[in-house]
Design a protein that fits this description.
It is a multi-pass membrane protein. This protein is mainly α. It has five helices and two strands, in the order H-H-H-H-E-E-H. A two-stranded antiparallel ribbon has the order 1-2. Helix 3 runs antiparallel to helix 4.
Length: about 180
């Protein structure tokens, strides 16, 4: 258009470049979705560390049994839920579709399935707490079943949103891949 100190090309005022300065919408969406998924992964890591801490304290008996209860059975397979999050993070730098798909599948297997099992495992104890007001396990003075149901609800939302945003991100990546193939 114009050289560094020389004259401008005839018929232009130098402002005709603005149409090239816009970023394609699927690239903008990719950046936004990656940011949202990272926030959810970091939230998941915090929940995961809390569960890990509860399991370590319960097994090593670092605190009395009435302070921190032994873990429920669903918490053990849920520890594997860190793997899908790591796969998701690994998929971001190069928009690796296969890592993102593996992350989504393993999120269902290692994250959502243990949460569903956990809700079913704890249901009789929650029912007993609701009907009779009796709790046998405690975490820092609160009934363990109430605390763990709260964890299950929050974790299910985190993983649900993570799956939703991952699907949208996958669609965004497929859009950019299809446009590259058309060229």
């Amino acid at each position: 258009m114009a050289s560094r100190g020389g004259p401008r090309a005839a018929g232009t005022d130098g402002s005709d470049f603005q149409h090239r300065e816009r970023v394609a919408s699927h690239y903008q969406m990719s950046v936004t979705l990656k940011s949202e998924i990272k926030k959810l992964i970091y939230t998941h890591v915090v929940l995961w560390l809390l569960l890990l801490a509860q399991m370590v304290v319960g097994h090593l008996k670092l605190l009395p049994h009435d302070q921190v209860a032994m873990p429920y059975q669903w918490e053990y397979p849920y520890l594997l839920s860190i793997l899908p999050s790591l796969l998701g993070l690994l998929s971001f730098p190069r928009n690796n579709i296969s890592y993102l798909v593996l992350s989504m599948i393993s999120t269902g297997l290692f994250s959502m399935a243990p949460l569903i099992y956990g809700a079913m495992e704890m249901f009789p104890m929650a029912q007993q707490l609701y009907r009779h007001g009796k709790a046998y396990r405690f975490i820092f003075g609160f009934s363990a079943v109430s605390v763990m149901y709260l964890v299950v609800v929050v974790a299910a939302q985190v993983h649900g949103w993570q799956l939703y945003y991952s699907k949208k991100l996958l669609d965004s990546w497929f859009t950019s891949t299809q446009e590259k193939k058309k060229k």
